[in-house]
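F.,

This is the one I mentioned.
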């Protein structure tokens, strides 16, 4: 798409960078908002101190205390868009296979002001996407061929280059891209795609090379 032509890195690498930036505020916001909410009763655990409380939730067995609000029809269109943003390859499945569209549904269904605004943006964007698909190709977005989907998204994937009539749709695409990357790269498969090892014992740990230490002023 347009962004790919402007950058020497490939799309999947760029999305990994977006995911790192997008995941942090999402997690922080969820934690801050969760501090003021009453969560459902946590599941039984062998260690009562690890069960979680309203202000310190159990992130290993999370409970979402609100109902999701997007319709199955909206989710089908979202799934197609998520898979265009992060398609399957030889390293990992497509975004929808890991529930990216369902994560977006959970996000926009949250009873917080920011997420309520996101729901208006997402729902309006889905309507626009299907309308634009029908205008150009006589079919709904999820029914289009990949190159037809790409043609539409090329017009909205980079706000600074988008025509005035595509600015609102560009904001919608930007939100979906960020949420899709956040959803994908916080799954086991997404972390493996990034190469994130996590908190596991290593047989050997090599310190940063001298040139890296010099670059950050630590040599």
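My design for it:
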């Amino acid at each position: 798409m347009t962004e790919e032509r402007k950058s020497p890195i490939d799309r999947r690498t760029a999305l990994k960078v977006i995911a790192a930036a997008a995941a942090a505020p999402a997690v922080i916001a969820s934690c801050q908002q969760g501090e003021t909410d009453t969560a459902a009763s946590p599941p039984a655990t062998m260690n009562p101190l690890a069960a979680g409380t309203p202000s310190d939730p159990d992130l290993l067995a999370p409970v979402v205390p609100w109902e999701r609000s997007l319709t199955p029809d909206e989710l089908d269109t979202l799934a197609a868009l998520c898979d265009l943003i992060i398609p399957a390859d030889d390293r990992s499945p497509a975004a929808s296979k890991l529930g990216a569209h369902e994560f977006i549904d959970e996000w926009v269904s949250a009873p917080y002001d920011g997420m309520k605004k996101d729901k208006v943006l997402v729902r309006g964007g889905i309507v626009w996407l299907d309308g634009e698909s029908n205008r150009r190709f006589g079919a709904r977005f999820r029914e289009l061929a990949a190159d037809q989907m790409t043609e539409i998204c090329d017009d909205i994937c980079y706000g600074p280059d988008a025509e005035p009539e595509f600015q609102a749709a560009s904001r919608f695409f930007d939100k979906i891209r960020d949420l899709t990357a956040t959803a994908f790269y916080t799954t086991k498969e997404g972390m493996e795609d990034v190469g994130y090892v996590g908190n596991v014992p290593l047989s050997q740990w090599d310190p940063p090379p001298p040139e890296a230490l010099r670059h950050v002023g630590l040599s």
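The chain has a mean pLDDT of 83.

Talk soon.
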